[in-house]
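Field reference: sequence -> structure
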Amino acid sequence: MTNHTSTPRSQDPEDIKKRNFIKGLTGGVLGLLTLSITWPFVSYLIPTTAGGREERFIKVPNFPDMPLGVPTKMNFQDLEEQAFLKMSTVYDIWVIKHSPTEATVYSPLCPHLNCRYSWDAKQFACPCHGSNFNLAGKCTAGPSPRPLDSLPYKIEGGELFVQWKQFKAGIPDKVEA
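Structure field:
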């Protein structure tokens, strides 16, 4: 009869170290997988700025090449990214360049019912209900309750940056929608 004084396999210190290493490795991998799966949902719930509305200026291409004093319809693209989702929105605006450092920027939506107006060589004209506006944005004819809605802008390094906003239609006050 032989007397074994060896430790059972499950109590071997080397075996315990291996088991703990595999437990830690498995936990770490599962933690990373959980984080990668839940991050898009969590980041969607976190607002980008206080109040959840992002107040940023977006570059409008080709501003330096614009003619002076002529209303020009321009487009710019806003790329919004939330988690792994990327959205692209194209906005159009009316810009009157007064100098390389000064401009007037109008929303393309008529304040009456948000129809899109156009420039007809002497005035802005809305095709929906006949509202007309001069270069200063003042309503000269039609049912529009207020002047054209101007948009916040800044010019830096000769480039135009616009902050897109939409306003409530059909009311006399300029109220952001």
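Note: The helical segments are 13-45.
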